[in-house]
Structures are given as structure tokens and as C-alpha cells.
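Ticket #4471: structure export looks truncated?
Reporter: QA, pipeline team
Priority: medium

Steps to reproduce: submit the single chain below to the structure queue and open the exported record.
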Amino acid sequence: MEPREGRSVYGDWRTAAMGEGGLQRSEFEWLTRPMTPYEMIDDGVALYREHFPLLAKLSFLIYLIPTLVTVLFLVPIAVAEWRSPASSPVAAFLECGSWCFLLPYLMIAPPLQAMATSWAAYRFLQGEPVNSLREVWDAVRPRLGQLIANQLLAFVVLGLIYVVIGVMAGIGAVAGAMAIGSLGLGGTASLIMLMLFYLLGTIVLLLLTALATVWVIILPQIILFEPETDALTAFSRAFTLVGKNFRHAFVSCLLFWAFQGVVYLSAYMFLGLVVLTVAGLLYAYGVDLQALYMRWANTFGNLVDMVSYVVFALVYPAMYLISFFFYFDLRYRAEGLDIAQVLARSGKG
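Actual output as written to the record:
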């Protein structure tokens, strides 16, 4: 792939004429050797930055539905809380109803966006244009049924695993608190011991969650780029790719989460600063902030949901581009240098 004039070359520090053993290099500049997690993050962000208009438009279109539904529920929720001098059960019911209404869509929207973003990235890195969102939709629509079935199965399996992890965490928290209490330490020493124990438990919990999640990150890419797979065989394919390079995949997953966490933390710290500023102004004018929140809690919750969808729409394209690079990196490690020929055999070359 020859870079166009004025266009950055992704992973240009990895470019080489021939691969190991004299094998012909892949057609992709970013697949001339295995990528580190940092390179995947860097290339994902760079690709997002270069093609921001189309990828952001795709992302906002996907999150337009939950945003509109939230707005539609916001009006009756605000009216119910305005009519009630205290917390309104009607508003709480509507808030819960909005989540139940959106849950099926929110289960499918992220993997659909991952698949659509990956297809667009594939075209970008081949130097081919993506002219419209309709073109993207036409490309991913034939695999949508398999994606939905696959993600529903993944949701059930991960849900059961997370329940088991949650039960183990609860039992461990209670047992740890009882064990520390039985030591007969002073109040301050017991509190420090308890905090350290819960910190260690949180780290273990995150590691177990990553251990369960790393296997399903690349499922949308498998379904898109490997048409011979279906909703069930995509799982075995993911286990094969991840299992052959498990340590690399596990560390990459943790670093991807860390990157995502830093981005979210930055966004919500900014929003928190705005909220604290507004709250400070209201307090200066003598407003009872606790009473205000208790009365308008569900309205505030819906507003937070709307802001969250905007944050998701801005952040998720970069994360899905990173998972796109992650998928091809695992294929590279498992199948050698000539990914172009592998893709050609599967009908995608």
C-alpha cells in the first residue's frame, strides 16, 4: 500500500521489505511484524484522528437512538418530579423503564459499531475510500444476524462468569473483614488492614474480569473478516487466536482498559468540575443541594445518561480501532507474515 501524499503512514517504523525467513510481507504497512499494545493504541488513535469526520458521524448515528429515547423519557420524568415535592416513584419507574427499553439495543450497538468501524479501517488502510455510511451498512449487514446471535451468547456466558466472580468477591470481602476483625487490632490498624485487603481484592477482581473478557474482544472482527465462521464457531476461533498468544493478549487487554479508563477519567473529571462549579453557585445563593438532588435525582440521572452517550460516541471509535489492530496482530502471530494471502483465501483479500 503506497501512502498518499500528505497522509501519515501507520506503523512506518515497522516497514521492512521482507519478513522473517524471506516471506513476502503483508500488504498492510502495520503488519510487517507483531505489534506491541502501545503501538496498537498509537495507531488506533492516529487512524481515528485522520478519519475523524466519518468515524465520529458513524458513532453518533449509532448513539442517536439511545440519546433520543433518553430525551423522550426525560420530559415525563422531569414533569413527574416537578409535581412531587419529594422523590417521585413515577419518575423512578420511568427511569427504570427507559433502561429496560434501551437494554436490547445497547447490547447490540457496541459490537455493531465495532464491526462497522473495523470494516472502514480495513478500507482506509488499503487506501480505498469510504464514500458514505450507507456503504458501511451495506458491507456489514450480511453478517448482522450472526453478530447478534454471537453477542447474545457472549452476553449470557459473560453474565454467568461475572455473577460467579461477583459471588466470589462478596464471599471474599465478608471473610476478609471477619478475619481482620478477629485479629483484635486497634481501630486505625484494622481500618488500614481492611483498606489494603479491599485494594488487593479489587486488583484481583479486575484481573479475573480481564481474564474472562479477553476472549470476546475480537468476536465482531472475526465475524466480519472470516465469513466461514458463524455465531458459535466464532468463539472457538477467538479461543484459538487468543490462546496461542494468551500472555500478550491478556497484557494488551489490561493496557487497553487502562487507556480507556484514563480517557473516561479525564472526560468525567471535566464534567465533574462543571457540576461542582454549578453546585457552588447554587449553594452561594442559598439553595439546599441535598433537597434539590433528592427531588430531581431521576432527571439528573437521565441528563448524566445523555452526556455519557456523547462521551461513548467520541471515545468508542478509537477503542474499536485498537481492537481491530489487536485482531490482526493476533492473526499475524498465529498465521505468519503473509496475512494478505490468508485474507484472499477467505474471500476478503
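Status: closed, not a bug. The export was complete when the record was re-opened. Leaving a note from the reviewer for reference: Residues 12-345 form one domain.
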